[in-house]
Write a structure and sequence with these properties.
By secondary structure, the protein is of the alpha/beta class. It is built from 11 helices and 8 strands. 40% of the residues lie in helices and 14% in strands. β5, α4 and β6 form a beta-alpha-beta unit. The relative contact order is 0.17.
Length: 308
């Protein structure tokens, strides 16, 4: 039986602890697909970018702890018509973290901005999952001249509202700071067990859940904590009203163990209310990793978002 308290707790845990805890092995590369190559002329110790395909530019940003492989099937499906830029965030999924205890989110977004300028991309579309979606909105707020449009996939402008609609940055700050240390003291077995439990609410697919855990285990735990802290204390809602960049907010609902449709509708409608012209698109039968749980429905939305 559905329980509001347990769903809210699970959703909060998924968003702020294992929010995007891994890449999705259920989205493998296909034989004969174009091979992504490192972006030429760009080097960074916060992100790396692979490029594949030809056509208008689309930047794909994964979420917390995820590999760029979470977007591989999406990129392969679009590579005949678009040039895809697959971002990997340092500190996640086996990529080294070299920045100590500094900020995570805003410096990474600044590097994505620098990449777009360095590569000479002309107002690319941004598609971001979870923390990656928030990164796209943050980038559009900071540089509306640089971004064409944003698709935010199962991402809220202030994730801490998952603990309650009256949550503020200041109220979120204490537990956000605790998140920096939370995983550092665990041994691998305890950390894996926690990730396995959390992954159940993240996807309906068993192989996807297993992959999430693997990529989480390969992430730097300090980087994870810093990213969780930054996500929990970043409220993008005050900047929504001034945005002119087109935004699609795609979100999940699942009557069997995920977010009930009515509650998901209410939350996304409320949290994006100030954003002019936002397009809200619910995907049923899906948990957090919509691209894995409902790939056909997701790709239809992506193509519509890109104007096909």
């Amino acid at each position: 039986m559905f329980n509001v308290r347990s769903w809210s707790g699970r959703l909060a845990a998924c968003a702020l602890i294992a929010l995007s805890v891994g890449a999705v092995a259920a989205l493998p590369g296909r034989a004969g697909a174009q091979i992504a190559a490192p972006a030429p002329g760009f080097a960074s110790d916060r992100i790396s970018v692979e490029v594949t395909g030809e056509g208008p530019d689309v930047v794909l940003i994964p979420g917390m702890a995820s590999s760029r492989e979470v977007w591989r099937a999406t990129a392969e499906a679009l590579a005949g018509s678009y040039r895809l830029h697959l971002v990997q965030l340092s500190g996640f999924a086996g990529q080294p973290w070299t920045h100590g205890e500094g900020d995570f989110l805003r410096p990474a977004v600044a590097e994505i901005e620098r990449y777009i300028e360095t590569a000479g991309l002309e107002r690319p579309a941004i598609i971001g999952h979870s923390m990656g979606g928030a990164s796209g909105v943050l980038l559009a707020q900071a540089r509306p001249d640089l971004i064409g449009r944003v698709m935010s996939v199962d991402s809220l402008p202030f994730f801490s509202v998952l603990y309650g609609p009256d949550m503020t940055v200041e109220r979120a700050r204490p537990f956000a700071e605790q998140s920096v240390r939370a995983g550092l003291g665990m041994d691998d077995a305890a950390f894996r067990a926690g990730q396995q439990a959390l992954a159940q609410g993240m996807s309906r697919d068993e192989a996807t859940r297993a992959a999430m855990v693997d990529w989480s285990m390969a992430s730097d735990r300090l980087a994870l904590g810093l990213a969780m802290r930054d996500v929990a204390t970043t409220d993008l809602r005050p900047g929504l009203a001034a945005m002119a960049t087109p935004v699609w907010a795609v979100y999940a609902a699942d009557a069997d163990g995920g977010a009930p449709a009515a509650m998901a509708d209410a939350m996304w409608t409320r949290e994006y209310a100030a954003l002019p012209g936002v397009r809200l698109e619910r995907v049923d039968g899906s948990r957090h990793f919509i691209m894995a749980d409902q790939p056909e429905a997701f790709m239809a939305l992506v193509r519509a978002f890109l104007g096909e």
